[in-house]
Write a structure and sequence with these properties.
- This is MBL fold metallo-hydrolase.
- Keywords: Hydrolase, Signal.
- One of its GO terms (biological process) is antibiotic catabolic process.
- By secondary structure, the chain is of the alpha/beta class.
- The chain is about 35% helix and about 20% strand.
- Helix 7 packs across helix 10.
- The protein has a single domain, classed as Metallo-beta-lactamase, Chain A (4-Layer Sandwich), CATH 3.60.15.10.
- The protein contains 10 helices and 15 strands.
- It is globular and about 60 Å long.
- Bound molecules: zinc ion.
- Zinc ion (ZN) binds next to loops.
- The site of zinc ion (ZN) has 4 residues, from loops.
Length: about 300
């Protein structure tokens, strides 16, 4: 396991607190634990997980080298490199960004300086060319990432790696969390990384500033479920641990339940205000709606809007 000296640990905790304030989520960091918790998911895929504010990282390693999926925040890179080094002595060759959000691309600049080749969907690179606005707390803005953070290779539809003895398929999902969400399927290890289209800790975030769609998210989850077999393991963009097909079905059911309940109210002639007052997700909020910066009050207007179009 990784150990930090006292000074580094204090700095790390300070930065984590900053990140947590930024993203409005609550989490506890134990002083005596390494920053990343490492999970062996299946085959050649590990997952690195740290307190809630940043996305879950996929690590695909073998004799050819390492492919990373996402890289959290700028200040996490040192811990990320240490966590990967604890898994393999091979070099990190490639990084794929599942989407544009700062908690998934924040280490790009640092990793590029380590000679890592960055890939992402066309839309991710385009959105890196300007200031970024994301929907947390109604809309917060991030400065344009540095040029070195941009993907060197982009794809419009799909791209495959042939690495470490298996094929890794990366492809664009329908507009869901954003309009540039990539799914990653490690065919030999039988592991899916779905980025923030799939999260197990809260209601799904539909980023309307960056082309997201609630109905698209249902479609995207359907595609992922259709790909999964009984042994497939699934890495969520956020949420503790990894899961499987049943975990995806639970979220798909959640989405369709919300859709159907709001549709019934719309069919009865309810306005958005009346729908919010009716609290159609009241029984779901305890499990899914406890993050103050994104809960039913943020999600329901989007569902209403899309179903009313
Ligand atoms: Zn995201």
């Amino acid at each position: 396991m990784i150990r930090y000296n006292k000074h580094k640990r204090a700095l790390r905790i300070f930065l984590i607190i900053n990140a947590l304030v930024l993203f409005g989520q609550v989490s506890a960091q134990q002083n005596n634990q390494p920053f990343f918790k490492t999970y062996q998911v299946a085959g050649k895929v590990h997952m690195l997980q740290a307190p809630n504010a940043g996305g879950n990282i996929g690590v695909f390693s073998g004799e050819d080298g390492v492919l990373l999926i996402d890289d959290r925040f700028d200040q996490d890179t040192a811990a990320l490199l240490e966590a990967v080094a604890a898994i393999t002595d091979k070099k990190i060759e490639f990084l794929v960004n599942t989407h544009i959000h700062p908690d998934h691309i924040g280490g790009n600049n640092n990793l590029a300086a380590h000679g890592v080749l960055i890939l992402a969907h066309d839309s991710v690179r385009l959105r890196m060319l300007k200031e970024l606005r994301i929907p947390r707390r109604g809309g917060i803005t991030f400065p344009q990432p540095p040029e070195a953070a941009r993907p060197v290779i982009t794809y419009s539809d799909a791209i495959s790696f042939h690495l470490n003895g298996e094929e890794v398929r990366i492809f664009l999902a329908p507009p869901a969390h954003t309009d540039g969400d990539s799914f990653v399927y490690f065919t030999g290890s039988d592991v899916l990384h779905l980025g923030d289209v799939f999260r197990t800790n809260m209601y799904p975030i539909i980023d309307k500033f960056n082309g997201g769609s609630f109905l698209g998210m249902i479609e995207a989850m359907g595609i992922a479920i259709g790909m999964a077999g009984p042994n497939t393991k699934v890495i969520p963009g956020h949420g503790e641990g990894f899961t499987d097909r049943a975990g995806m079905l639970e979220v798909h059911d959640l989405l369709t339940t919300i859709r159907d309940r709001v549709q019934i109210l719309i069919d009865q002639g309810s306005s958005l205000e009346q729908i919010l007052a009716a609290a159609p997700t009241a029984d779901l909020d305890e499990r899914w709606g406890q993050v103050p910066s994104w809960n039913a009050a943020d999600l329901l207007p989007i569902v209403f809007q899309e179903l009313s179009e």
